[in-house]
Amino acid sequence: QLKCEGVHPARCTVERLMRQHGMQGIWRGKGKITTKSRNDQKRADDLVNRDFTAHRPNQLWVADFTYVKTLSGWVYTAFIIDVFARAIVGWRVSDRMNTDMVMAALNQAIADRNNPKDVIHHSDRGVQYLSIRYTDKMADSGVIASVGTTGDSYDNALAETVNGLYKTEVIEYLKQQWQGVNDVELATLEWVDWFNKTRLHSTIGYVSPFEFERRYYDSFIESDKAA
Q1: 16: in domain
Q2: Number of domains in the chain
Q3: Where does residue 2 rank: exposed (0-12), middle (13-18), buried (19+ CB within 10 A)?
Q4: Does pTM top 0.70 for this prediction?
Q5: Helix H or strand E segment including 125
């Protein structure tokens, strides 16, 4: 934020000030495994091969879901992220780790992005993403399926990173007793809005995802004016 305002502090200055004020970043750790795969289940090829780069919006989406422990039991949150600007384009909170959950996130992404064609959708080998209903929906919508081959976290590293940020910045940071789906859903709604519109991302030049996309589209307007 300071860099956006024209101030460029040294890293050591930031470290010193954080120590002085007793500030420390949240540590991120490992947790419950949610991916359940079947080696005999038909799946698409891996079209990404761990190359999580995109040159325009709606070129590549990555999908995954994570878990939240609540007083009512486990709650699951599914995300779909547009790789170009790291924008979350679809999400869903559910108390069931099933196809309906990931399907709702997919439907939201397709609708909010105005039914984009030929976007690659990359996921792990979870049975939810390989279900007939899910793969049929992608095919009917012109979305191209891609599935990781080895079944480890590196095959879907960008989605895993967003899951980690969500757990760190919402679930662990708020340090509250989560009751169930409703309060997790409300907190997730607020976080996604902040994540897309306000949060600064180092990989896109310390701007928000929506600001990065706006600059992309503005560049075409400027080119048209010049022409």
Answers
A1: no
A2: 1
A3: exposed
A4: yes
A5: none
